[in-house]
Write a structure and sequence with these properties.
The chain is α+β, with helices and mostly antiparallel strands. It has a domain of about 120 residues: endopeptidase domain like (from Nostoc punctiforme) (endopeptidase fold (from Nostoc punctiforme), Alpha-Beta Complex), CATH 3.90.1720. Helices cover about 60% and strands about 10% of the residues. α2 crosses α3. The radius of gyration is 66 Å and the shape is rod-shaped.
Length: about 270
């Protein structure tokens, strides 16, 4: 036996393989548990990250909606402004139309009043002429029965009377001086031209061309006029025996009529 056989070894006894394997298994289980816990912790920690990643998408949608809302608001404002402008234009047009209508009514009323006034004056003048004619008719009736004027024309007066009587039956045409048609003053002017006397062309001037004579002292060849001297509207030639020849109007033409047919206002003598 060795001299060292009785001395105890200072080395630690070796562990058995089974214990080592068991400890390794325990360690592995612990590590597995820690790995699972770590994985679970990692999974739980990842959830907030997932929510955070979704925020940009939500923010973009909101921005789009805000932009669209702003565009819609701007378009609505533009539409309101356009409508306001249209309403203002329509109101202005309506106001102008109302003003124009009022002016038109005022002018129409003024024309109506003017026409009524003209008609009233014409009626008054017509009534005055009719009154004068009625009075003159009565005078003419007396004058023709008591007149001392000559019924037989002589000299130049006879030539004038013969000429106007020769024109009886011819047409009345305004402005005509013969030989196929006459108006009232045209007939008188042409008749006196036959004896070398130049008379004015119109009845107003012919009514003052000679000496004024009374209707009760008429002689053949005297110029009769209707209306006042200087503003007469008709003339004819007295041919004697209470008769006159004149171009009366388009319907009767040149004809011979008694003084009572259309009593004259006055007379002038140029022969």
């Amino acid at each position: 036996m060795s001299h060292t056989a009785h001395i105890r070894s200072h080395r630690k006894p070796r562990r058995s393989a089974s214990k080592i394997a068991m400890r390794a298994g325990v360690a592995g289980g612990v590590l597995s548990t820690l790995a699972v816990a770590g994985a679970s912790g990692a999974a739980n920690a990842a959830e907030p990250v997932t929510q955070t990643l979704e925020l940009p998408t939500l923010t973009a949608d909101v921005a789009t909606q805000v932009a669209q809302s702003a565009d819609a608001t701007q378009q609505a404002a533009a539409n309101y402004q356009l409508q306001a402008e249209r309403d203002a234009a329509a109101a202005k047009a309506a106001k102008q139309a109302k003003s124009d209508l009022a002016d038109a009514k005022q002018k129409a009323e003024a024309k109506k009043k003017a026409a009524q006034e003209a008609a009233r004056k014409e009626a008054a003048a017509r009534a005055s002429r009719n009154s004068e004619r009625t009075t003159l008719s009565a005078k003419a009736t007396v004058n023709t029965s008591t007149s001392t004027s000559s019924s037989t024309a002589t000299g130049s007066a006879a030539a004038v009377v013969a000429f106007v009587k020769a024109q009886i039956g011819k047409a009345y045409v305004s402005g005509a001086t013969g030989p196929s048609a006459y108006d009232c003053s045209g007939l008188v002017q042409t008749a006196f031209k036959q004896v070398g006397i130049s008379l004015p062309r119109v009845s107003q001037d012919q009514s003052t061309a000679g000496t004024q004579v009374s209707l009760s002292n008429l002689q053949p060849g005297d110029i009769l006029y209707w209306g006042s001297a200087g503003s007469a509207y008709h003339v004819a030639v007295y041919v004697g025996d209470g008769m006159f020849v004149g171009a009366q109007n388009p319907s009767s033409g040149v004809g011979e009529h008694p003084l009572s047919y259309d009593p004259p206002t006055g007379a002038v003598r140029v022969l």
